[in-house]
């Protein structure tokens, strides 16, 4: 069961697992599409509606994906979906996942934390009640850790203090209401796991890039979403699109911000590995799910090089940082556990960037340049709901 | 401005500050009284309605306390209260504060985290928007730390790891949806403090005991609430009441659970100290607010001794632990910062326990013995709303 299966990671994962013989159901309330409608955004790629997507997938692959359309915060709906599908694993992508969206105004801050935290509490209760053996695989983010001045471990850290030792949850420092919602989820899940003897895996995912996966390439109508606006677009994908349309790549501040990255095809592989290695009852496994780390400046340089090979002329501008974050900092995050379980990463090679750029160039006429510049400033988040839709 | 000023800590603190010349407003939506009504509970002491309490206080002391009745999750109401009162400090007690209540069922788990976390986000936005210099003093709990096998520091811990060092938020391990809501609050507040340059103090309070303060003793109608039911009653207060009515003291499990405690008069003094020492903009001060630590068995022994002096015959029974928690563990929590700022603690001496027992004996005919035994089991928390009211 894939919560949030109409989204960027969820859609790719649903097809990946379905293609490999897993019986898949998608649960989604389409709120992500509503955010785009409300703010005047769009996916660069022309994505189809979920009903058509699922129909096309059956036509192309002969495999059926079940569809449950509804809100996981609606417990009546969620219970019915659990009782009907009887999942053995539940992959939870179904959250509001944009940091800028969560910092836009008070009502979106409250929406983000309510939607994400209460949704996850509901999922825990549904598993406890209807599928106690079901393995919950929950997407967190590397952003939960912030940028501490020590190495980032995978979820837990052993601390020696005043002559005594304990292994404790790694201290978290989320930097937006979105990132904090993930910290809250992790803490809630850990308590539920221990108290109710649940099986849970928390995946602190890095920034995902890329758009094509072997399954989405099987038919144009299966194409995945690709966001380039300043609210939902993420670092590398946005740079590729900016390069393709001749907009300078917008580096926030000094560009020394370093983060972990992974290709969308690796997201799918990691989820499969997590599904195949369920946590034992009462234990929450935590993995850092990314394959390489880069600074923003390094990303811009990589895109510049790959773009030039394709005859593009990528430029960089440093725009004032709308976020409150460190622009130069130590960053060393561990990420060996998934590789120990067999992950063979698809690293950020030139060929990968070139194929991303090629896809992007194909759809570049869809780009609305007004959506590219940052529209949400962390310090200006106000109580009065505003729309940043640019008309 | 005292959020939750009709509650146990809030009422005592409002009178304490008002009596010392601070201009005080109480904000409360009376939801605590509603919980009692719904579950068939009552305060041992016959508390008056908030309107009468405030009237009596003016009659007795000549001092006026303003009253804003409403829900802090209702931002329109909260904004109006902030604009009318223009607080320079905001003491935030206004949360659902019972761990068993939060573990009763899914809807109360979700209510607890929504009420507490979204209420606090609203308070942060109201301060940012209407009173940016206002010092937020937020009540957390020592329970946020759980029972780690290392010393508990005051909010932050310096970690040396792989040859590097950083001072990070102390790792939290809340053990109920209530305790976790406080962890979430602290994490959210830290981000708001840094991003919006707020002044905040987070007080991780221990278990409060006692009922009388100099102000509530000025008139019977000012009496504070005292909870003895298994949902809202806290350790020492419950034991005193059990001893007074001849019910054996209900020690959960082995009784080795150790926690920090403080007298209700010290709660008032700590809040005053926090008010008088506002945090600088952009920094969140964190204090552990308790004065002594005891195990549950030690508390039972103290009450036994004090009770015998008063001619009572206190007994102990070990009941199965309804919570999922360690019953024997290391516990050493620091609590020097408030004393460094001038707190002179009112320690748990025999005289204090005797006066608590005397008050309790005075009202003992109000006790409904059916409410004493634990009614909420951590592992049985179900999705279906239930009422544990015993008729
Ligand atoms: N994309 C990244 O770079 C990235 C990085 C780290 C972590 N993650 C995490 O991975 C997950 C998926 O990210 P994504 O990029 O695919 O996001 P997305 O917005 O494309 O997909 C999320 C999906 O969840 C659905 N959803 C949200 N709330 C729901 C609710 N209450 N009920 C039902 N459906 C709901 C949305 O409609 C959407 O289809 C998120 O939890 C995100 O935080 C993503
Ligand atoms: N009593 C203790 O031993 C203890 C120990 C540690 C921490 N604390 C913390 O101290 C604070 C006060 O505790 P207490 O024992 O006085 O609790 P209480 O329940 O007696 O008082 C809380 C008050 O807040 C009000 N309230 C709750 N939600 C509200 C909302 N959304 N809008 C407006 N008012 C709201 C309630 O009506 C109630 O009057 C709580 O935050 C609690 O977590 C208490």
Automatic annotation (TrEMBL), chains A, B:
NAD-dependent epimerase/dehydratase domain ranges (all copies): 2-288
PANTHER family found in the cross-reference section: DTDP-D-GLUCOSE 4,6-DEHYDRATASE-RELATED
Family statement drawn from the similarity comment of this UniProt entry: Belongs to the NAD(P)-dependent epimerase/dehydratase family.
Identification of the protein by name: NAD-dependent epimerase/dehydratase domain-containing protein
Species: Micromonas commoda (strain RCC299 / NOUM17 / CCMP2709) (Picoplanktonic green alga)
